[in-house]
Specification:
The protein is elongated, with a radius of gyration of 25 Å. The protein has two domains: 147 residues, Glucose-6-phosphate isomerase like protein, domain 1 (Rossmann fold), CATH 3.40.50.10490; 69 residues, Phosphoglucose isomerase, C-terminal domain (Orthogonal Bundle). It has a five-stranded parallel beta sheet with strand order 2-1-3-4-5, with helices on both faces. The model has no long low-confidence stretch (mean pLDDT 86). Helix content is 51%, strand content 9%. The longest helix is centred in the last third of the chain and has 22 residues. It contains nine helices and five strands, in the order H-E-H-E-H-E-H-H-E-H-E-H-H-H. This is Glucose-6-phosphate isomerase. Pathway: Carbohydrate degradation; glycolysis; D-glyceraldehyde 3-phosphate and glycerone phosphate from D-glucose: step 2/4.
């Protein structure tokens, strides 16, 4: 709830739209202006619009199979985008322009450079819609750029008020409390937390060799010795 409105239907709608779009790109259903599938995706953004997707991409890379190569352009220095574009084929490249207002100077400068590079090869402004999509809230600016607003993924400018922040914290604390009741533990036992930290300092050096440990209670000794014997990275 935000300001008394249930925002989840809108959020879920955009998430479903993103899911469908990603599937079309990864499966090869989405085609460029010459009918070829997309092989490279370039995220054009700055700040959180660059670091956020970059972090997610790096974190999920070990679990990704096939799919397009992903590039990130954020530096206003023209060298960054020039070096990136030099490795790409306009016929099979898709650009994601991430800017809430679609007026962010660094992002739009790089996006315009990418569009100029693309049009030098495509020779058709209508082809821009097949190779550029947007993350934005400014539909008129997105349309003026040449992007089909059907391929604009919307987000919102919700403000975190003191009331909303307090409600979120209260919900979190309630969740922790209920979990503790279910597991029959005191979720807010600070002494237990501190004891765990002290025990960790004693246990860490014991993993430097393969010798069995007998200095703790039987449960802790058993777990440490099991890990030493069965986990290859120790």
């Amino acid at each position: 709830m935000v300001d008394g409105k249930d925002v989840m239907p809108d959020v879920n709608g955009v998430l479903e739209k993103m899911k469908g779009f990603c599937h079309r790109v990864r499966s090869g259903e989405w085609k460029g202006y010459t009918g070829k599938a997309i092989t490279d995706v370039v995220n054009v953004g700055i700040g959180g619009s660059d670091l956020g997707p970059l972090m997610v991409t790096e974190a999920l890379k070990p679990y990704s199979k096939d799919g397009p190569r992903v590039w990130f352009v954020s530096n206003i220095d023209g060298t960054h985008i020039a070096k990136t574009l030099a490795q790409l084929d306009a016929e099979t490249t898709l650009f994601i322009v991430a800017s809430k207002t679609f007026t962010t100077q660094e992002t739009i400068t790089n996006a315009e450079s990418a569009k100029a590079w693309f049009l030098e090869r495509a020779k058709d402004k209508a082809a821009v819609a097949k190779h550029f999509v947007a993350l934005s809230t400014n539909a008129p600016k997105v349309k003026d750029f040449g992007i089909d607003t059907e391929n604009m993924f919307e987000f919102w400018d919700w403000k975190l008020t003191p009331f909303t922040l307090g409600a979120l914290i209260a919900m979190y604390e309630q969740k922790i409390f209920v979990q503790g009741v279910m597991w029959e533990i005191n979720s807010f036992d600070q002494w237990g937390v501190e004891l765990g930290k002290q025990l960790a300092k004693k246990i860490e050096p014991e993993f430097t060799d393969v010798a069995e440990v007998h200095s703790h209670d039987s449960s802790t000794n058993g777990l440490i010795n099991f890990l030493k014997k069965n986990v290859a990275w120790l």
